[in-house]
Amino acid sequence: MAKWGQGDPRWIVEERADGTNVNNWNWTERDATSWSRSKLQEVLVGLVVEGEAGRCEICELKQVEGEASCSSRKGRLIFFYEWNLRLSWKGTVKESGEKHKGSIEIPNLSEENEVDDTEINVSKKKGEGDILKELMRTEGTTKVREALRDYLKALKTEFTLGMILPTKAAGQELAAERRLSGNTVQESASPHLQGLVGVKIPTVRILMREIFSSPADELYSIFTTKELVQKFSKCPAVIEAEKGGKLLMFDGCVSGEYTELVPGKRLVLKWRCRNWPDEHYATVALNFQNMVAETELQLECKGVPVSNEDSTRQWWKKQYFEEIHNLLQQSKDNMD
């Protein structure tokens, strides 16, 4: 068996109760579909194209069909994505001030083709204004390709944080660097191995996003109001929604403390599961982003023990997100 930092990383099992999927060496897969929809919206909508002919802007992502995922296998990341996109654009002719609208079709954005080879079709509604169509076909297409590259770059960096973990030696070097720089152990300079929080164990960061059919202030209250927490968790709870206040849920399976509260916008918790090492807490940040008639909840969970990554992700998905969706639907049904 290799020692820490030596040889094949799949055999690095020191400080683990089991040797299962060490450093995510075995097959691990994450669904990137929901995250990708939000990211494509972010990088494409609002793009402005200006030229001598006039000014155009992509105003809506009207169709997003497809899926995306990322898998890790033997220390390698494997990406799959296949999208059929339709965008709306509007523009104004510089000389006449005439306004025109059109669309952009991207029928097959996938890992099988380079972005430069991806088909992009520009069309315009009936009438004059072909000068704007030409502007979008040339300079507009260039900007759309740049935005698609930004999406793919984020997919391969931002979304994959924590999927491939370094060896313990790398973690020791990082800890040494932090001591020299005066940073606290919870601050992270590495996208893969988070700080040693509480007890000294390898940890990862989990990023998740979920769309809820609820205003941000209403969704925020579900995490801070005892009665609502007990409704979605279906268990008695201790909820002291103030800085330093206690948190106890799911018959004691989850405990923690409120550390930052910005009503309707942001919530930060010290958070742990009962089966984690004693006194070890993760830092959970919940950001509430208002959308039209919806809220995007952005979750960042730093300091999750490596061996508990998958179970923690499932806990948030099943016990929090799905149950909150059910609670919101019940409230809607009661109103109807």
How would you characterize the overall build of this protein?
The chain is α+β, with helices and mostly antiparallel strands and 336 residues long. The chain has six helices and 13 strands. The protein has helices spanning 33-44, 130-156, 168-181, 216-224, 226-233, 309-335; strands at 28-31, 48-51, 54-73, 76-93, 99-110, 121-124, 203-212, 238-239, 246-249, 254-262, 266-273, 282-291, 294-305. The strands form two sheets. A seven-stranded antiparallel β-sheet has the order 7-13-12-11-10-9-8. Strands 1, 2, 3, 4, 5 and 6 form a six-stranded antiparallel β-sheet that branches. Mean pLDDT is 81; it is low at 1-25 and 165-199.
Features:
336 residues, alpha+beta, 6-stranded antiparallel sheet, 29% helix, elongated
What can be said about the biggest beta sheet? 7 strands, antiparallel
N-to-C series of helices and strands: EHEEEEEHHEHHEEEEEEH
Distance between the termini: 63 Å
Work out the oligomeric state of the chains in this entry: single chain
Percent range of helical residues: 25-40%
Unreliable spans are 1-25, 165-199
Percentage of residues in strands: 25-35%
In angstroms, what is the radius of gyration? 24 Å
